[in-house]
Design goal:
The complex is a heterodimer of chains A (717) and B (158). Chain A is an alpha+beta fold and 717 residues long. Helix content of chain A is 30%, strand content 24%. Chain A is built from 20 helices and 28 strands. In chain A, a hairpin with a 2-residue loop joins strand 6 and strand 7. The longest helix of chain B is centred in the last third of the chain and has 16 residues. Chain B contains 5 helices and 5 strands, in the order ββαβββαααα. The radius of gyration of chain B is 15 Å and the shape is globular. At the A-B interface, helix 7, helix 9 and helix 18 of A face helix 1, helix 2, helix 3, helix 4 and helix 5 of B. The complex binds FE2/S2 (inorganic) cluster (2 copies). One FE2/S2 (inorganic) cluster (FES) sits at the interface of chains B and A.
Chain lengths: 717, 158
C-alpha cells in the first residue's frame, strides 16, 4: 500500500515509459502525426487493483497516429473479448475526427506497441477510457486544424472538416486532407487531456446501431484467437497438476510418459510438464505420470462455507451510516431479519486460458488470452527474472473473459516452458484446469434487519455483508436510519478461501442486489402494498424511479399484492454508474420445483448510449447469463478439491432456458456514457426469487435456486 | 503408425498421412491449419468443435480422425462460396449474433445442418437443435433470431 502511494506521487520520467521507448514509435510507424494523450485521472487509478498500478499517471499512455495516407490508428492496451469496444471506440474516434469509420483502426493489447493499460475490466472501457479518448481525438483535430490554417492561409474559425478533408467554409475549393497534412511529417504532440467537454450530439456513428467490425472474421473462422496461432517448431504442453489446492508434490515417476513416442518430459523442480508436436499425445502422456502428494486441506466445503465465513476472523468496517438504527427500530411497526447466501461461481468462458510463448535470443514473445496483457508482462518479468524490454505480450481476440481472464497464470507457465525448452510452446488449459484454477466469484453471506412503519415507509436498514465487498451494497432507498457493515478477509489472521477468487461480471453486485431486493419485497408483501408501489414510495432517486416506471410500462405491469399466484417479480439497482430495473415472469412446476422464466423486461439508464446495438446485445447477454447464477451455477468443493470440473456437472445457461427479453435504454444524449457490460445482470436473481414468491408464497434466501431448493421452500409455506 | 486417410474436406478431396488415433479437431487445427474449428472442453459438452460429417453435426474433439475416412467433412471455412457468405453466416453478422465469437463456428454449422434437413423450423425446433451448443457470452436470443431469419432467406433462394 505504502509503496504504491509513493509511486503515485513520484513523476515518471518520459524515457522510462512502458513498452518500447516513446522515441521509437514514429520510427516504427513510419512518419505521420502522433498524438499522445493521458486518459487517466487519479480517481480511475485508485479503482485499479493495487498490483495492477504500475506506471502511473504522468506518462502519456494512449495515442493516436495519423498516417501519411490519412488513416487513423488508435493504440490502446485494452483488449477485445466480446464486449465490442473494438467497434465502439473506433466509432468515437471516427466521429470526433470527422473521418469515415473504415479509416480508423484500433491496435489493442500489445505491450510493445500500446501504452500501458491496467487491464480491461468490466464496463470501464467505455465509461472512463471512452470520454478521455474522445477528448484526445478532439485535441488532435484542433492540432490538425491549426496546421491546415497555416497551410491554406485561412483562420481556423472558417475551417470545417468532413471525411478527413479540411476546407474553407467560404471557399470549399481551398482544402487540405489529413493525409496531405501528415505527409512527410514526423510530428509528435503531447496533450494533457481534460474529460470530454463537448456536447454528445451531432454524431455520425455514435448513438446509431452499428454492426461489429469483428463479426465477419468471427463467422468465417478467420478471426485469430491465441490458440489459433502457429509458429514453426511449435509444441503443445500439459502441466502436471496437484489434485487439490494446497497439495504438495512429494514424488513423481515420469517413466510412463517418457515411453510415449514424440513426447518429451520437462522438469524444473516441482514443475513438471510434457510437450509434443501432437496435441493428443500430451493428453495421453500427462496421465501416465505417477505422482504422490501430501495434503493440507482447509476444513471447509460448499456445505459449511457460510458458517465458516461468519465465524472467520475478519476485518470489520462500517462503510456507511446515518441516523440511529435503534431509534428506527423503535419507530417500526414490523421488523424483518433475514440471512442470504450465495456460493462460489465460475467464469467458464468457452475459450480456456491459452498462451503461446516463444523465446528468441533474449526476447520473450508471448501471445495470451488475457484481460491484462501488461499484468502478464510484469508477472513474467518477475517470475522469470527478465527485464521489461525483453518481454512482449500480445493479445489476439479473447474468447470471453468476464473477469476470469484478469488472471494470467497460463501465460507465465507458457513463458517458463519456452525459456526451459527454447521451443515455441502452446499451452491450452483443459476444461478441468480452467475450473481448478479459476478465480471464482466469492461465496458470501448477507444479513439484513429492517423495519417499516404503519404507512409502509422504511424505518431502518441494518446491513451486514461478509466477503461480498460493497459494490451494490448501498441502500438505494430513502431510509432515515441506516448502517452498512462489511466483513472482509483479514489475510494475516485467517485464510477464508481455499482457492483463488476474483472479479465476476459486476463483482458481487448480484449478491448485494439479491439481498436488498428480496428484503424490500418481503416488506412490501407484509405491508400489503404492491412491490412496485412500495419501491416508488420509498425512493427519492430520480433515475431509479424513471427506470422502474419505464420497465413497468414495457412489461405491461398491473399492480397487485404479493403473493398473488401470478409469478411476477421486480428488482432494481445500479452498477458502474448505470441504473437498471427488471420485471420477470416465471412459471413454477410445484411438483418438481422447476422454474422457467417466461419473460423479462429490463430498463436501463446508462447515460449516452454510444452503440445501442451493442448495448442491447450486452443487456440481453447479462440477463441470459444471470439465469446461470440464478438457477444452477455453484462450485462444489471439499477443502481445496474442486468437485465441478466440467460442463457436465457445472451447468451454464442454454438456449432452452431463455425467456422472451424486452429491453429499453432510456434516452440520455446529454449525459456522459456509463458502463453497459454488466448492470443488467445484477437484478435478475432477485426478480426471479420475488417472482417465485409471488407464484407460490415460498421464499428462497439463496442462489442458485435449484429445483430441490425450490421444492423444499414450497414445502415450508 | 501413421496411416493415409482419404476424405472430402470442404468439397476438396483430401489425403492425409497422420496418426489415425488423433482427434479430428487437432488434425484440422494443427495439421491442416483450419483453426476456425474451436476447442472448448474436449469432452463433447460445449459444441465449439462442431463440424459437419456427411451433413450431420458432430463433435470433432471426440472423434478419431480415422472415423472420417471416405466421408465428407465441412468446417466453418467451407461455408463461404466464391467469397460470398453462407446465408446463415450473413444472418449472424446482421443479427449481431455473437460476442467473443468462440462458440460461433459451432453454432453456425449446427444451424446449417438443421436448415438442410428442416428448411422451415419453428423457434422451438431451432432451440432444440442448438441446445447443446454452449455460449457463455449469451448471444442466445440473437442466434435464434439469426437462424429463423436465415431460414426465410434460404427459402427465398437468395
Ligand atoms: S470441444 Fe468438443 S464439445 Fe467441447
Ligand atoms: S459468443 Fe462468446 S461464447 Fe458465444
Amino acid at each position: 500500500m505504502k509503496k504504491n502511494e509513493e509511486k503515485l506521487s513520484k513523476p515518471v520520467t518520459s524515457t522510462k515509459g512502458p513498452g518500447m521507448k516513446r522515441r521509437n514509435f514514429l520510427k516504427l510507424l513510419g512518419g505521420g502525426i502522433l498524438i499522445f494523450f493521458q486518459p487517466w485521472n487519479v480517481a480511475d487509478l485508485l479503482a485499479v487493483p493495487q498490483q495492477q498500478r504500475r506506471t502511473l499517471t504522468k506518462d502519456y499512455n494512449a495515442f493516436i497516429h495519423i498516417a501519411e495516407d490519412g488513416n487513423i490508428s488508435c493504440f490502446t492496451g485494452k483488449i477485445e473479448m466480446g464486449q465490442g469496444i473494438i467497434t465502439s471506440l473506433a466509432m468515437m474516434m471516427a466521429d470526433e475526427l470527422n473521418v469515415p469509420f473504415e479509416r480508423v483502426t484500433m491496435v489493442m493489447g500489445d505491450t510493445d506497441l500500446c501504452p500501458y493499460d491496467a487491464g480491461t475490466w468490466g464496463s470501464q472501457s467505455t465509461q472512463t477510457f471512452g470520454p478521455a479518448m474522445r477528448a484526445a481525438a478532439a485535441e488532435a483535430k484542433a492540432v490538425l486544424l491549426d496546421m491546415a490554417s497555416a497551410k491554406i492561409g485561412v483562420p481556423v474559425s472558417r475551417l470545417e472538416v468532413k471525411d478527413g478533408i479540411i476546407a474553407d467554409t467560404s471557399n470549399p475549393g481551398n482544402s487540405v486532407s489529413y493525409a496531405q497534412l501528415a505527409k512527410g511529417q514526423k510530428l509528435e504532440k503531447y496533450l494533457e487531456v481534460k474529460p470530454a467537454s463537448e456536447e454528445y450530439t451531432k454524431f455520425t456513428y455514435v448513438g446509431k446501431p452499428f454492426n461489429r467490425v469483428d463479426a465477419i472474421e468471427k463467422v468465417t473462422g478467420r478471426a485469430k484467437y491465441t490458440g489459433d496461432l502457429k509458429i514453426p517448431g511449435m509444441v503443445f504442453a500439459r502441466i502436471l497438476r496437484p489434485p487439490s489446492h494446497g497439495a504438495k508434490l512429494i514424488s513423481a515417476d515420469v517413466s510412463g510418459a517418457e515411453k510415449i513416442s514424440d513426447v518429451e518430459v520437462v522438469r524444473d523442480g516441482d514443475f513438471i510438464a510434457v510437450i509434443s508436436g501432437n496435441k493428443d499425445k500430451v493428453d495421453e502422456a500427462i496421465v501416465k505420470i505417477k505422482a504422490e502428494y501430501t495434503f493440507n486441506e482447509m476444513p471447509v466445503s460448499d456445505k459449511t462455507v457460510f458458517d465458516w465465513m461468519v465465524k472467520a476472523e475478519s476485518r470489520v468496517s462500517v462503510v456507511r451510516t446515518g441516523g440511529d438504527i435503534e431509534e428506527g427500530r423503535k419507530q417500526s411497526d414490523k421488523v424483518f431479519e433475514s440471512e442470504y447466501h450465495d456460493p462460489y461461481v465460475a467464469h467458464a468462458a468457452i475459450e480456456t486460458h491459452t498462451a503461446l510463448a516463444h523465446m528468441e535470443g533474449e526476447k520473450m514473445n508471448v501471445w495470451a488470452s488475457t484481460q491484462s496483457p501488461f499484468g502478464l508482462q510484469d508477472a513474467i518479468v518477475n517470475e522469470l527474472k527478465m527485464t521489461r524490454e525483453t518481454v512482449r505480450v500480445r493479445t489476439p481476440y479473447v474468447g470471453g473473459g468476464f473477469g476470469g481472464k484478469g488472471a494470467y497464470q497460463q501465460g507465465v507457465e507458457a513463458a517458463r516452458l519456452a525459456k526451459l525448452t527454447r521451443k515455441p510452446v502452446m499451452l491450452v488449459w483443459t476444461r478441468d484446469e480452467e475450473f481448478f484454477y479459476d478465480t471464482f466469484h466469492t461465496a458470501n453471506v448477507i444479513k439484513v434487519s429492517s423495519g417499516i412503519d404503519k404507512s409502509g415507509l422504511i424505518t431502518f436498514w441494518d446491513y451486514h455483508v461478509w466477503f461480498a465487498g460493497t459494490r451494490g451494497a448501498e441502500i438505494i432507498y430513502d431510509v432515515p436510519n441506516f448502517k452498512t457493515t462489511s466483513y472482509s478477509e483479514n489475510a494475516s489472521a485467517f485464510r477464508v478461501h481455499p482457492f483463488g477468487t476474483g472479479a465476476w461480471r459486476a463483482p458481487n453486485n448480484n449478491s448485494n442486489t439479491f439481498a436488498r431486493e428480496l428484503q424490500i419485497d418481503m416488506m412490501a408483501s407484509a405491508a400489503g402494498i404492491d412491490p412496485l408501489d412500495f419501491r416508488l414510495k420509498n425512493l427519492k432517486d430520480e433515475k431509479m424511479i424513471a427506470c422502474l416506471k419505464s420497465v413497468a410500462d414495457k412489461f405491461g405491469y398491473v399492480p397487485a399484492r404479493t403473493p398473488g399466484n401470478r409469478g411476477i417479480g421486480i428488482a432494481c439497482g445500479h452498477d458502474a454508474g448505470t441504473w437498471v430495473a427488471e420485471i420477470v415472469e416465471v412459471k413454477v412446476d410445484k411438483g418438481t420445483g422447476k422454474v422457467q422464466v417466461v419473460r423479462v423486461a429490463c430498463s436501463q439508464d446508462m447515460g449516452l448510449c454510444v452503440n445501442p446495438e451493442g448495448a442491447l446485445l450486452q443487456m440481453e447477454g447479462c440477463i441470459s447469463m444471470a439465469l446461470g447464477y440464478t438457477f444452477s451455477e455453484e462450485v462444489h468443493f471439499e477443502g481445496g478439491n474442486i468437485l465441478d470440473r466440467g460442463f457436465d456437472t457445472y451447468q451454464i445457461p442454454k438456449m432452452s432456458w431463455l425467456p422472451k427479453i424486452d429491453c429499453v435504454i432510456l434516452e440520455r444524449k446529454d449525459k456522459p456514457p456509463k458502463g453497459g457490460g454488466e448492470p443488467a445482470i445484477i437484478a435478475v436473481g432477485a426478480a426471479v426469487a420475488n417472482a417465485i414468491h409471488d407464484a407460490t408464497g415460498a421464499r428462497l434466501y439463496r442462489t442458485p435456486m435449484t429445483p430441490e431448493r425450490v421444492l423444499e421452500a414450497i414445502k415450508k409455506v | 503408425m501413421e496411416e493415409t486417410i482419404r476424405f472430402t474436406l470442404n468439397g476438396k478431396k483430401t489425403e492425409l498421412l497422420t496418426d489415425p488415433s488423433q482427434t479430428l479437431v487437432w488434425v484440422l487445427r494443427n495439421q491442416l491449419g483450419l483453426t476456425g474449428t474451436k476447442w472448448g472442453c474436449g469432452a463433447g459438452f460445449c459444441g465449439a468443435c462442431t463440424v459437419l460429417l456427411d451433413g450431420e453435426p458432430v463433435r470433432s474433439c471426440s472423434l478419431p480422425v480415422s472415423d472420417v475416412a471416405g466421408k465428407k467433412v465441412i468446417t466453418i471455412e467451407g461455408l463461404e462460396k466464391k467469397g460470398k457468405l453462407h446465408p446463415v453466416q450473413k444472418a449472424f453478422v446482421e443479427h449481431d449474433a455473437l460476442q467473443c465469437g468462440f462458440c460461433t463456428p459451432g453454432m453456425i454449422l449446427t444451424s446449417v445442418s438443421l436448415l438442410q434437413k428442416n428448411p422451415s423450423p419453428t423457434r422451438q425446433e431451432v432451440i432444440e437443435a442448438l441446445d447443446e451448443n454452449l455460449c457463455r457470452c449469451t448471444a442466445h436470443v440473437r442466434i435464434i433470431d439469426a437462424v429463423m431469419d436465415a431460414s426465410k432467406v434460404m427459402k427465398g433462394g437468395k
